[in-house]
Every structure is written in structure tokens, then in C-alpha cells.
TrEMBL record:
<dbReference type="InterPro" id="IPR001412">
    <property type="entry name" value="aa-tRNA-synth_I_CS"/>
</dbReference>
<comment type="function">
    <text>Is required not only for elongation of protein synthesis but also for the initiation of all mRNA translation through initiator tRNA(fMet) aminoacylation.</text>
</comment>
<keyword id="KW-0963">Cytoplasm</keyword>
<dbReference type="InterPro" id="IPR014758">
    <property type="entry name" value="Met-tRNA_synth"/>
</dbReference>
<comment type="similarity">
    <text>Belongs to the class-I aminoacyl-tRNA synthetase family. MetG type 2B subfamily.</text>
</comment>
<keyword id="KW-0648">Protein biosynthesis</keyword>
<keyword id="KW-0436">Ligase</keyword>
<comment type="subunit">
    <text>Monomer.</text>
</comment>
<dbReference type="InterPro" id="IPR041872">
    <property type="entry name" value="Anticodon_Met"/>
</dbReference>
<keyword id="KW-0030">Aminoacyl-tRNA synthetase</keyword>
<feature type="short sequence motif" description="'KMSKS' region">
    <location>
        <begin position="304"/>
        <end position="308"/>
    </location>
</feature>
<dbReference type="InterPro" id="IPR015413">
    <property type="entry name" value="Methionyl/Leucyl_tRNA_Synth"/>
</dbReference>
<dbReference type="InterPro" id="IPR033911">
    <property type="entry name" value="MetRS_core"/>
</dbReference>
<dbReference type="InterPro" id="IPR014729">
    <property type="entry name" value="Rossmann-like_a/b/a_fold"/>
</dbReference>
<dbReference type="Pfam" id="PF19303">
    <property type="entry name" value="Anticodon_3"/>
</dbReference>
<keyword id="KW-0067">ATP-binding</keyword>
<keyword id="KW-0547">Nucleotide-binding</keyword>
Length: 524
């Protein structure tokens, strides 16, 4: 007999690894929360999931920031990396590993992939002269540089560039122009969303120059095998983290997770993940990841959040102010994943009060408190189902299939949108059936309406788990759902609440956010 995990299909997904050159900010939290939700969804859907995140600790940007702080880069990276790891915990992260590129296992993996590329004849020594952006840790072509009125030159993402001239190893990126274009043509899902794919294809079509992949003017990096005067270009080592975590170059328990199913990254680093990374892997003779998704950027609308809090961009402060599940829900529901978005105090409060507290919370509270009072605190026994009952149950049955499709395109907002639509329809159903009036006239019909409502709430709660894990868990608790009956297999039509099973005392799961900050500010 196979164990469940031996039978399960594997799913490997990653976030970008963050530069720990400062404290984590809301952009880092956003990417992590979204990837965590995807990981949780896949686990609940029966996959054997490996979810990786971590920190990217080499490069000139890290070195310069450490020097400014008067600290050794290794110690500086260590201090800040700890803050990132703390953030993953504060966000309720379900990551299976946290990789740091300063770790020994990562040196081994980076040197191993370098050797494979060198053995393939794709690395040669020459000298580099051209533009480099420390902020982006990126080389740019002359055609991508703009000279501004201040006399300074800037790269395509608006960061200043400097002239670099030194001996360097090169990777034969130009050789991979055609193979890359074929990859994009043959695998239309390799890059998402579609506008990112178009940008990348036109960049590659415009021609690829060989890439400088080592530096000699500093030593904070991974030594080039056989020529220790050089350290690897930070992106060669950074991208390799995804392999390192699977045990590469060894054949450990995790090696079967490669190739990754999904790299979740921000739109500013799509070029590295969809041009350089697949070219490195092709050269090394290694399988390519299946998909790279570039999400949008998150901005604070710039409005005043509160006198006492200021413009909250610190993820720890946001969790403190709103609570984790409100933050997770807002970010995943408000901004279509893939597009840029804004957040503000008002937007967070309005969105979560109207959908979590009013729509979902009230539906659960009203139906469950009636069951508590009038059905002996047991799941009621339904009678014959009417068309209205069948319709709302059918709508709840369809949700998993559409959610799965949306998740495979990383359209997280559509999953939450679907749940909200179902809950609104159920609120209308509940109001229309008037179970409170049926109590005297037709108690059996009342029991049916309460049963149907509770069953739909159960289905919604199971599907909400990846997004608001704590609150969805509490909701399933008040529905009396056993902890091992909460996976998506429990959404099969024949799996329903068991009439007669006892229910705990109902309690509110999604309280309204009471705007103490606004009250305080208003009073001043
Ligand atoms: O780019 N909104 O690290 P990083 C949304 N070390 N996402 C944002 C954001 C914002 N305001 N700001 C940043 C790096 N991000 C490299 C990655 S991967 C092998 C190496 C996203 O700390 C950004 O797009 O600058 C990236 O995906 C992630 O946060 C880490 O950014």
C-alpha cells in the first residue's frame, strides 16, 4: 500500500529571495502571502507541496549597505535575514524551507551549476565594459540607458547606472536567443500574466548579448570554481537557490521536486527569471521550471493612515493594526494578482468589514445561532429540497473546479471573488426563505433552510482556508467540522454536514474592525 504522500503529485513553488539590505517591507509581505496562499491551496487539494522562500545575500548592493552601516557583510546579512524569517512566521507562513544564499549548501550548488555551464563550453573569459545598476544588480545595454538633466544616466527601471570596466567571465547568452524564443512559443504558459510574456518576447527578439557573470573588484560572493580572484555575478548565484533547496547537485529526498512548478516574483525581475535562468539551465542540461508569474507592485496610496501610526508600510505594524487575516484577505482580494495596486487604511477597513464581517461573518452567525437555539445545537435534519435549495447547493459545488483553474493561472482574486459571490447569493437565499418566520409555521422547512445554509458555509469555509487560515479554521470549528475533514476532498458532493451531529456554542468569527485610530484622530 502506498502512503498518501507517495501517491500525491508533487508541486514545488517559490517566492523570489529578498535582499536583506534593510527591513522587510509590504512588497515582500505581499509576495509571500500570495505564494503562501497558493501553497496552502495545493496542499488542501492533495498535492505534495514544497514551498520555498529565503534571502539573497551577496552582491554589491548588500556589500555597500553593510559598509555604510560599518558592519561586515556576513553579519549584516545575518541580522536582516533574521527579520525576514521573522516576517514569514508573523504572516503565518507555511513555507517548508527558508534558504540563505550565504549557506554552505548554496555554495556547493552554485559552483556545481557553474561547472556544468563551463563544461558545456558556454563560459569564457574576456573583459567587460558597460553600464551596471547596483540597485537592480543588473547590466544594461547602451540602448536601455537614458541621460537625464542632472547629468546622471539611468537604467530602464529608473535606477542610476555606473560605468564598469574589468576582467570578467561571460556566459554565451546570445547562443540561447532562438532556443528561448522557441520555449516561449511552445509553452505559452511559461510566463504569466500575458503582458509580461509579450515584454520578454520583444526583449529577446531584439537580440541578446553575452552576459558578464563574474566580478573581480570585491569578494562578497561565491568564488568562481578554479579562479578564485572572481566571484560570481549575484544573479547567477541567486537564481540557483531554487535548485539548492532541492538538494542539487546531490540526489536527496527533495531532488524529485525539480523542475519547479512555479516561481512567483515581482514584475521588475521577470527578465532574470525568464531569460537568464532558463538559458543557464539549458546550458547546464537541467530541466526548466514550468511557469514564472510576475505579480504587480503594491503602493501606499500616500494618504495619511493615522496620526498615531503614520504611513504604515511595516508588515509587522500592519499585522498588529489589522490582524493577520484581515491583511491577508485585503491584499489577495483587493488587487488582481498580476496588476499593480494600492492600499490604504480606509480600503482595508471597508473591504474587510463589508465582506468578512458583514457578508460571511453575519451569514454564519445568523444561521448558527438559530441552529443553536431552535435545533438543539445539532446539525438540523433537512427535509425535501426545493429548487432554491438545490440551486444554492449547486453553486457551492461548482466553486472548487473554477477555483482550481483560477489558481493554476494565479488568479487568486477570482477565487475570493467566487466565494464572495456565493456568500452573497446565500445571504439572499437566507433572507428570502425567512427561516425565523418558518419556526412557527413550518419547523421542518426551517430545519432544511438552516441545514442548506450551514452546508454552504462549510464549503465556503473550506475554500477560505488558504487565504485566511486562522479565521477559516475557527469557522470550521463552530460548524463542528473535524480537523481531519477539512481538505478539498471534503467538497465532493457526497461529503456533507451530518444531521444530528452536535455543534459548539456559536461565536463570532469575523469581528468588524472598529476604527479606534479614526476615533482618536477625530477627537483631537
Ligand atoms: O529582487 N510591491 O530582491 P528584492 C510588490 N533578490 N512586490 C515588490 C515590491 C512592491 N512594492 N517591492 C519589491 C530581489 N517587490 C532579488 C530577487 S530571486 C532569485 C532574487 C518584490 O528584495 C520584488 O519584485 O528587491 C521581488 O519579487 C521581491 O519583492 C524581492 O525583492
Amino acid at each position: 500500500k502506498f502512503s498518501e504522500s507517495a501517491m500525491a503529485e508533487r508541486y514545488y513553488l517559490t517566492t523570489a529571495i529578498s535582499y536583506p539590505n534593510g527591513r522587510p517591507h509590504i512588497g515582500h509581505a505581499y509576495e509571500f502571502i500570495a505564494t503562501d496562499a497558493l501553497a496552502r491551496f495545493k496542499r488542501l487539494d492533495g498535492y505534495d507541496v514544497f514551498f520555498l522562500t529565503g534571502t539573497d545575500e551577496h552582491g554589491i548592493k548588500m556589500l555597500q549597505t553593510a559598509r555604510k552601516a560599518g558592519i561586515e557583510p556576513r553579519d549584516f546579512a545575518e541580522q536582516n535575514s533574521a527579520e525576514f524569517e521573522k516576517m514569514t512566521k508573523a504572516l503565518g507562513g507555511s513555507n517548508d524551507d527558508f534558504i540563505r544564499t550565504s549557506e554552505e549548501r548554496h555554495y556547493a550548488a552554485s559552483q556545481a551549476i557553474w561547472k556544468l555551464m563551463a563544461d558545456a563550453g558556454d563560459i569564457y573569459k574576456d573583459s567587460y565594459s558597460g553600464w551596471y545598476s547596483v540597485r537592480d544588480e543588473a547590466y544594461y545595454g547602451e540602448d536601455e540607458i537614458t541621460l537625464k538633466e542632472d547629468g546622471q544616466r539611468y537604467g530602464p527601471q529608473g535606477s542610476p547606472v555606473e560605468w564598469v570596466e574589468e576582467e570578467s567571465y561571460f556566459f554565451k547568452l546570445s547562443k540561447f536567443q532562438e532556443p528561448l524564443l522557441e520555449l516561449y512559443e511552445n509553452n505559452p504558459d511559461f510566463i504569466g500574466p500575458a503582458e509580461r510574456r509579450n515584454e520578454v518576447m520583444s526583449f529577446v527578439r531584439s537580440g541578446l548579448r553575452d552576459l558578464s557573470v563574474s566580478r573581480t573588484t570585491f569578494d562578497w560572493g561565491i568564488p568562481v570554481p578554479g579562479d578564485e580572484k572572481h566571484v560570481m555575478y549575484v544573479w547567477v548565484d541567486a537564481l540557483t537557490n531554487y535548485l539548492t533547496a532541492t538538494g542539487f547537485p546531490g540526489e536527496g529526498d527533495r531532488s524529485a521536486f525539480w523542475p519547479a512548478d512555479l516561481h512567483v516574483i515581482g514584475k521588475d525581475i521577470v527578465r532574470f527569471h525568464t531569460v537568464y535562468w532558463p538559458a543557464f539551465l539549458m546550458s547546464a542540461g537541467l530541466p526548466l521550471p514550468k511557469r514564472v508569474f510576475g505579480h504587480g507592485f503594491l503602493f501606499n496610496r500616500g494618504e495619511k493612515m493615522s496620526k498615531s501610526v503614520g504611513n504604515v508600510i511595516d508588515p509587522f505594524a500592519l499585522i498588529e493594526t489589522y490582524g493577520l487575516d484581515r491583511l491577508r484577505y485585503f491584499l489577495l482580494r483587493e488587487v488582481p494578482f498580476g496588476q499593480d495596486g494600492n492600499y490604504s487604511h480606509d480600503a482595508i477597513v471597508n473591504r474587510t468589514n463589508s465582506e468578512l464581517a458583514n457578508d460571511i461573518g453575519n451569514l454564519a452567525q445568523r444561521s448558527l445561532s438559530m441552529i443553536g437555539k431552535h435545533c438543539d445545537a445539532k446539525v438540523p435534519t433537512p427535509g425535501a429540497l426545493t429548487e432554491a435549495d438545490e440551486a444554492i447547493l449547486a453553486q457551492s459545488h461548482q466553486l472548487l473546479a473554477t477555483a482550481r483553474e483560477a489558481i493554476d493561472r494565479q488568479e487568486i482574486h477570482h477565487v475570493l471573488g467566487g466565494i464572495v459571490t456565493l456568500v452573497s447569493a446565500t445571504n439572499r437565499y437566507f433572507a428570502g426563505e425567512e427561516p425565523w418566520a418558518l419556526r412557527k409555521t413550518d419547523p421542518e422547512r426551517m430545519a432544511t433552510v438552516l441545514y442548506v445554509t450551514a452546508e454552504v458555509v462549510r464549503r465556503a469555509a473550506i475554500l477560505l482556508q488558504p487565504f485566511v487560515p486562522d479565521s477559516a479554521g475557527k469557522l470550521l470549528d463552530v460548524l463542528g467540522v473535524d480537523p481531519d475533514r477539512r481538505s478539498f476532498s471534503e467538497l465532493a458532493p457526497e461529503r456533507t454536514l451530518q444531521p444530528g451531529s452536535p455543534l459548539p456554542t456559536p461565536q463570532g468569527v469575523f469581528p468588524r474592525f472598529v476604527d479606534k485610530l479614526a476615533e482618536e484622530d477625530g477627537a483631537k
